[in-house]
Amino acid sequence: MPGKGAIVVQANGNPLARLQGFRMIMDGASSATILEKLRSPDYDSEHQQYAIITMDDINHPATYTGTKTISYASTLTGNGITVQGNMLTNPDEIQVIFDAAVKAQKDSLPIQDILMIALEAGARSGGDKRCGERKAASAFLTVSKPEDIDKHWLNLVVLGDDGHTHAVEALRRKFDDWKAKEKTNSNTP
Fold it and tell me: Which whole number is the average pLDDT over 134-142?
C-alpha cells in the first residue's frame, strides 16, 4: 500500500489474511496489532508466514512463521528490513539474505537495488528447495512511491514456467534493462 506499508502472507498463502492485513494497514493499525489479529484461529496462522511493515513505524516490522510451515522456514528483522523465507535449502539462507540487504542499505543504495541484491543473495545461498539448480521458478521486484495509486513505480515479474529459467538471473537482466531506460529518461531534457 503506497505510503502506508506492506504485508506478505506466504507459505500456505491465505487471501483472507492478506485482505485483513491490507485493511488494517489502510486504517492505520500498527504492525504488532495486525499480526495479533492474523494469529487468530480464523486465519490458520500455523500454516502461514507473515511479514508486516508500516510507514508509521518502519523500524518495527512484525513477522511470524507458523509452526506447521515447511522447513527451512524463518525470518530476520532489523534496521527497517524484514526477510522471510520458507522451503529454503538450508537454515543459513535467511542470514545471508539479511546480511546482503543490510550491507546494501549501509551502502546507501536505493530500495530497488537492495531488493535485487537480497534476491540474488538468496539464490546464491540455495534458493527454493523445490527448484533445484534454477534456485527460483519465479521472482518479482515491486517498488511503489507514496503517490502511486493505479500502478507501481517499478514492477518486474519473471515466471519461469518453462522448467529451466533461473528466475532471479532473468529478473536481474530485466532490472538492468529497466535501470538503463531510467538513466536514459532522466538524462533527457
Answer: 92
